[in-house]
Amino acid sequence: MTTPPDDVILPPEADPRLGPVLSGLVACLCATLTDGGRPACACCLVWGNQPAQDFCACDCDGGHGQAWVRVVRQEPVDTDQQRRRRCQTWRMQTIVEVGVARCVAVVAEDGQSAPTCAQRESDAWGLVLDQRLLREAVACCEALQDVQVWPGTVTPMGPQGGCAGVIMQITVEV
Fold it and tell me: Measuring CA to CA, how many Å separate 48 from each of 9, 51, 97?
């Protein structure tokens, strides 16, 4: 295992345009989930694929599960091929995912007892609320006010391994 460096890279240092958008979106997501009564134990920017469900069953200070923001991919926007002094001028469209995963009722350890309809409905309504909160986090986020944003798909995920959740993708142009 390696230890991360002591020097913290700030979002504008990582990418002056995309960094503040991503960090602002994380802050909006975490705050919106908390304000909506559905805080997550972990709420952060992640890299790569959707995060492993490490905190799915975690309970913490009235919250549970995990929430994330991640870059799915970047694609260049057609430009008029203008060149600045020594560098190309590129505009990028970035597909960003916001998501949340929660612990849900599953078959008991004895393999005999399935969740009741009431348990399944409770989980489903909680995830419907999470879905609304994800949309609200994106729609009301100040960090997105100065960039072009297009909504994308909202997709349920799971249940798998006792976890279920919802993901939403947006496209931002930076």
Answer: 18, 8, 11
